[in-house]
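Lab intake sheet, docking and co-folding queue.

SAMPLE TYPE: protein with bound small molecule
LIGAND NAME: zinc ion
LIGAND FORMAT: SMILES
REQUESTED OUTPUT: full 3D complex as structure tokens
PRIORITY: normal
SUBMITTED BY: R.K., bench team

The fields below were copied directly from the construct record.
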Amino acid sequence: MGEYVSKIAVIRALLKDFKDERHTWYSASYAIDIMAKIVDEMPSAEVRPVVHGRWEYHPEGDACCSECGWPTPWLYISNYCGHCGAEMEGLDV
Ligand SMILES: [Zn+2]
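RESULT FIELD (auto-filled):
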């Protein structure tokens, strides 16, 4: 799993540092090294891609997840699949 940072946090951190006139003499190569260091030192978060699914009709009468096919009794369907974690956006019956 990769490390992720906020785009706006990166922009703000770079602008904060590079608006300073003491950096105007930097070569492009050195500036890139400084920017890489700034981004590397930023706090990051572990994130997972959000999988979206739908509850579908299962041939045996239950609902099933469109993403993993896991059958679930209609009584227990919820906003997410308890097997794969997909966020459910509705019903396809
Ligand atoms: Zn699922």
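REVIEWER NOTE: The chain has two domains: 3-46, 52-92.
SIGN-OFF: pending second check by T.M.
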